[in-house]
Write a structure and sequence with these properties.
23 helices, 30% helix, five-stranded parallel β-sheet, globular, Glyco_hydro_3_AS, binds 1-deoxynojirimycin, TIM Barrel
């Protein structure tokens, strides 16, 4: 075994369990290793196969064990649990010629076993500390089960809720999306990769995957370089600046070239402009997919295009392993580049400490202690509560007080809907290893939270088809109850990868069910759980209280119940616009004004005949059980120098009767630019807590960095002129003031 021969094997390194990673030592070690490797073994280090344990895409081969033994598969994904992975690592270490340990990847997107809210939900917390801690905890849990690499964070900006993968990102805003991506990278990777509770992060999907046309997954992306750089690339960059070590390509094309063969993205931007020095992995078989894309005639050409574009690792496609030796022999790719790519992969293995101890992530005792530990479950509850967005809260018919929170002294509630007593769907999309039997359902959450309230439960309807045979039971349950809670929305398969929908209303007969329940005249609370914004205009118009509870993971039930019954005051704010109907899409807050902005009195302005331009709920929107008043916007100066700064502040007062949290948002509008500018751009926010009657002054500092953009000649800078600033509770409301950049 070469590593042992070099005196740098596990035995030697084990004398010091946590050696500092010194670059020189690492380089020397990796140089010697590369010198020993055949071309096939080098290609093997650039190869990643899914194990038979789980699959997250099309399966092309089942012979990965032979490849592994031959040193032609240097990395595996979808192999987890210590028991399962340890044998695979043993094969790599003991049976391959050079004994190079494997990387074990997994889509730990919002949890390994303990499942946290889906990313779009957690983004609604606007709480970077909570988000970072969540990422740290699920990485720690996954790390205890043998995983040392996760394909997370996904920072794709998305403006089309038909796209099922909107669930996996942070929504529509590049500024917030970047901050959340960076928080996740910090949480996943920690300060020291050789700490076995930290793993490699992977920023994905590079690039612009969220802009697939008509929200259809894997579809064409076509946008200007200006739009790409202004709105889509920044979150990837910010997440990389936070230290992310790997990047995943996207399935889509950008300017006619599929991302996995796109040199502009993978080399010019990622390496040359941004200085990225980790490695790039394809998204699944996206090298192979360049054949049906129609930019290459066969897999060999695909391998050549991807390799020369700057893609280091081939996930699942097997084309690098198959064609790199031939391509080198034919001089179509360079061995020096191959060595460089192999180095980038081996460096990560080294930094994780795998050469020092390949079993460092494979400790059964640690795994047993970590899975579903109290620390994880407590935080899963907290994160779930912070993710809930209260969309509407009015008095029920004939009442004077807002319907929520419900009183624990209520005699009975009807709990109706397919998500009321449901474990699996609460986990949401991409819950790779999440165990549904650990999920606390809404019905159990209510029993724990309000034990004296009698629950009359009826499933009522399903997520698909039009079977209404359960309606009668639901109506009976509603009739004998004081209040009705409707637990409605999507099942976990209705969002996520390959789960685009062309209509995004309540699926199946649920809309008909809620209309029949509403007709009974009882007070109704709608708890909407889904992986995307749903077009729930009828609900907004007819149901007095509406809560968006996404898919919140293992602790969904208690989180929702505690919020319904007032143990928790909701403070989530949407990070994605909710359209009124599909025809409005794309509808997002940071749009352009157009030359004919909306004017109700002028036919020839930008609008629809059949729906307003306003969305159902705007970006940044979310209510609380208390109320907040915004007043006294002030600027430290109405003039700002290019190298100076100004402060903008306002006072926020809790004018209601509950203690509550508020996400105070700060937006800027550049009134005149050399190119058109958005009507508003988020530039800051602060989540504050206020007791009833309490007020707080919140300040935001503006520097020239906040005003920069891609100008007409594509230089990134601020232009002198007039700006508006807004401080408010959402992108659609707030106080405004003006200043001039000199
Ligand atoms: C395809 C998905 O697009 C990507 O996000 C995921 O990481 C890989 N499959 C691996 O499962």
């Amino acid at each position: 075994m070469l590593v042992a021969m070099l005196g740098l094997g596990w035995g030697f390194m084990n004398n010091d369990p946590k050696p500092k990673v010194e670059d020189e030592k690492m380089n020397e070690f990796i140089d010697s290793l590369i010198n020993e490797m055949t071309i096939e073994e080098k290609a093997g280090q650039l190869t990643l196969y899914t194990s038979g344990w789980d699959v997250t895409g099309p399966v092309l081969r089942d012979d990965y064990m032979d490849e592994l033994r031959a040193g032609r598969a240097g990395n595996l994904f979808n192999a987890h649990t210590v028991d399962y992975a340890i044998n695979l690592q043993k094969i790599a270490v003991e049976e391959t010629r050079l004994g190079i340990p494997l990387l074990f990847g997994l889509d730990v997107i919002h949890g390994y076993k303990t499942t946290f809210p889906i990313p779009l939900a957690e983004a609604a917390s606007w709480d970077l500390e909570v988000i970072e801690k969540t990422a740290h905890l699920y990485s720690k849990e996954a790390a205890s089960a043998g995983i040392n690499w996760t394909y997370n964070p996904m920072v794709d900006i998305a403006r089309d809720p038909r796209w099922g993968r909107i669930a996996e990102g942070s929504g529509e805003d590049p500024y917030l999306g970047g901050l959340i991506g960076a928080a996740k990278v910090r949480g996943i990777q920690g300060m020291d990769l050789s700490d076995p509770t930290t793993i490699l992060a992977c920023v994905k999907h590079f690039a612009a995957y969220g802009a697939s046309q008509a929200g259809r997954d894997y579809h064409t992306v076509d946008m200007s370089d200006r739009e790409l750089r202004q709105n889509y690339l920044p979150p990837y960059k910010v997440a990389l600046d936070a230290g992310a070590t790997t990047v995943m390509t996207s399935f889509n094309e950008v300017d006619g070239v599929p991302a996995s063969g796109n040199k502009y993205l993978m080399t010019e931007i990622l390496r040359n402009e941004w200085g990225f020095d980790g490695f790039v992995v394809t998204d699944y078989t996206s090298i192979n997919e360049m054949v049906p894309h129609g930019v290459v005639a066969n897999l060999k050409e695909a391998a050549e295009l991807a390799f020369n574009a700057g893609v280091q690792m081939d996930m699942q496609g097997g084309v690098y392993s198959q064609y790199i030796p031939e391509l080198i022999a034919e001089g179509k790719i360079k061995e020096a580049t191959l060595d460089e790519y192999v180095r980038q992969v081996l460096e990560m293995k080294y930094k994780l400490g795998l050469f020092e101890d390949p079993y460092r992530y494979l400790n059964k005792e640690r795994e047993q202690k970590t899975l579903y530990s109290k620390e994880l479950m407590d935080h899963a509850l907290l994160a779930a509560k912070e993710s809930i967005v209260l969309l509407k809260n009015e008095p029920a018919k004939g009442q004077s007080e807002q319907l929520l929170p419900l009183k624990k002294s209520l005699k009975s509630v009807a709990l109706i809907g397919p998500l009321a007593d449901n474990q699996k769907d609460m986990l949401g999309t991409w819950h790779v290893a999440g165990d549904e039997t650990k999920v606390v359902t809404l019905i159990d959450g209510i029993k724990q939270t309000a034990p004296n309230v009698k629950i009359n439960y009826a499933r009522g309807a399903d997520f698909n088809g039009d079977d209404r045979s359960g309606f009668a039971e639901a109506i009976t349950a509603a009739k004998k109850s004081d209040v009705v809670i409707m637990a409605i929305g999507e099942d976990y398969t209705q969002s996520g990868e390959a789960a685009s929908r062309s209509e995004i209303g309540l699926p199946g007969p649920q809309q008909a069910l809620i209309e029949e329940i509403h007709a009974l005249g009882k007070p109704v609370v709608a708890v909407v759980m889904a992986g995307r914004p749903l077009t729930i205009e009828w609900i907004d118009e007819n149901i007095p209280a509406v809560m968006n509870a996404w898919h919140l993971g293992t602790m969904s039930g208690p989180a929702i119940a505690q919020t319904l019954f007032g143990d928790h005051n909701p403070a989530g704010k949407l990070t994605i616009t909710f359209p009124k109907n599909v025809g409005q899409i794309p509808v997002y807050y940071n749009m352009k004004n157009t030359g004919r902005p909306f004017d109700a009195n002028n036919k020839y302005t930008s609008k629809y005949l059949d729906v307003s331009n306003e969305p159902l709920y705007p970006f940044g929107y979310g209510k609380s059980y208390t109320s907040f008043d915004y007043s006294g916007i002030e600027l430290s100066s109405t003039n700002m120098e290019m190298n100076g700064s100004i402060t903008v502040s306002a006072t926020i007062k809790n004018t209601g009767k509950y203690a509550g949290k508020e996400v105070v948002q700060f937006y800027i509008r550049d009134l005149v630019g050399s190119v058109t500018r958005p009507v508003k751009e988020l530039k800051g926010f602060e989540k504050i807590s206020l007791a009833p009657g309490e007020s707080k002054k919140v300040s935001f500092t503006v520097t020239v960095k906040d005003l920069e953009f891609y100008t007409r000649d594509m230089s990134y800078k601020a232009e002198p002129g007039d700006f508006k600033v807004f401080i408010g509770p959402s992108s659609a409301e707030g106080l405004e003031a003006d200043f001039t950049l000199k």
